[in-house]
Amino acid sequence: MQISITFKAMNSSDALKSHIHEKFEKLDKMLDSDADAHIVLSVEKLRNIADINMTCDKIKIHATEEADNNMYAAIDALSEKVKVQIRKYKDKQRRHLSGDKESIKTNGTALEFPEGIDE
What we know:
alpha+beta; four-stranded mixed β-sheet; 2 helices
């Protein structure tokens, strides 16, 4: 995973960078191919905001998380949010490819056309 980090209105920190790499390398194992992630860390008054834009083949993820006075908490919450989005996408893909699609006919109610209209 290619991770680029931008610090906005705050000083860059090697500890924050290593924490981000640690959290998001775990998520890289969930993805099928290589991903690009752009993470923006910013401070506005008393809020610490972590924002991510991630692209991987067909999946595009955008998430924002904020925490009060703790950037590490914002990063942890952001990684959990991204993990949920990846899991949701993969489950949706798995259901689609397995053929578990429901149609109107399987629910027991077939479409009926009024008389005089051809199908």
